Amino acid sequence: MKKILLLLVSFFYFVSFTYAQGDLQEVVYLKNGSIIRGIIIEQQPNKLIKIQTNDGNVFVYNIDEVDKITKEPYYNRNHKKNNSNFQYKETNGYKGFLELGYTFGTGDFGEDELEINGTYGYQFNPYFFLGAGTGVHFYFDSSKVALPIYADLRANFIKSSITPFVGIKIGYSPFDLQGFYLNPNAGVRFALDSKTLKALNISMGYSMQKVDVDWGYYGISRETVGGVNLKVGIEF
């Protein structure tokens, strides 16, 4: 349990840090009043710094010339314009998801599980998506497979190329492992500047599958197989 809690804390720290750092650039303030914005590509302590600007130019300054170094939101108008087109070029329309995940079983009936999910649906605006999908979930201990069919609701927090999101899958698994399926999750969406792939998603959540457990002489009971899961997915 301690390892799972540590994993959860580490993940949400990563989400917060990624969100905070996503749209910042380094800014060098010189003692002569000049301000240089870009990426510091080399820094020699007490000697010099080398910074590359957004247009590709590289400048080198002695440390004696530098007043301070900070991280600030992007200032360049062209950057904002290009970034806006990149972020919001599709605010609504049909799209799909493919996900690969692994669940670390918890509780009395927890099992480690490998899963592949496919979802297709409609993005109503930059924030809300609703779709339906199915998955193949393989449970290692019992060597059984669940095939959940689910509705998938997702919500992005902000309009940005990097945004935190929350989601929930609710459905039912027929066939071998029959029962209610639930998967609330949260993560980070990284928009991609690609014609075929829209974004990369990294998420963590809790996966729950209702199953029948055969106790032989004592009969059959309805139990919950669940655990903490990590997933990596793409949007197309």
Radius of gyration from the CA trace? 23 Å
Structural class: mainly beta
Number of strands: 14
Give the SSE string: HEEEEEHEEEEEEEEE
Overall CATH architecture of the domain at 91-235: Beta Barrel
Query: What is the count of DSSP helices, taking H or I runs of 4+ residues?
Result: 2
Looking at the structure, the CATH topology of the domain at 91-235 is Porin
- The proportion of residues in beta strands is over 45%
The biggest sheet amounts to:
8 strands, antiparallel, barrel
Low-pLDDT segments = 76-88
Q: What is the CA–CA distance across the termini? A: 36 Å
What's the oligomerization state?
single chain
Q: Give the % helix.
A: 10-25%
- The backbone outline, from C-alpha atoms, is elongated
CATH class of the domain at 91-235, named Mainly Beta
Main-sheet strand order equals: 6-7-8-10-11-12-13-14
Mean pLDDT: 84
Topology:
Blueprint: H1 2-21, E1 24-30, E2 35-44, E3 48-53, E4 58-62, E5 66-73, H2 77-88, E6 93-106, E7 113-123, E8 128-139, E9 144-146, E10 149-156, E11 162-173, E12 179-191, E13 199-214, E14 220-235
Antiparallel strand pairs: 1-2, 1-5, 2-3, 3-4, 6-7, 6-14, 7-8, 8-9, 8-10, 10-11, 11-12, 12-13, 13-14
Report a brief summary of the structure:
By secondary structure, the chain is mainly beta. The protein has 2 helices and 14 strands, in the order αβββββαβββββββββ. Strand 2 and strand 3 form a beta hairpin.
Could you characterize what this model shows?
The chain has helices at residues 2-21, 77-88, and strands at residues 24-30, 35-44, 48-53, 58-62, 66-73, 93-106, 113-123, 128-139, 144-146, 149-156, 162-173, 179-191, 199-214, 220-235. With 236 residues, it is mainly β. Strands 6-7-8-10-11-12-13-14 form an 8-stranded antiparallel beta barrel. It has a 5-stranded antiparallel sheet with strand order 4-3-2-1-5, with no helix packed on it. This is Outer membrane protein beta-barrel domain-containing protein.
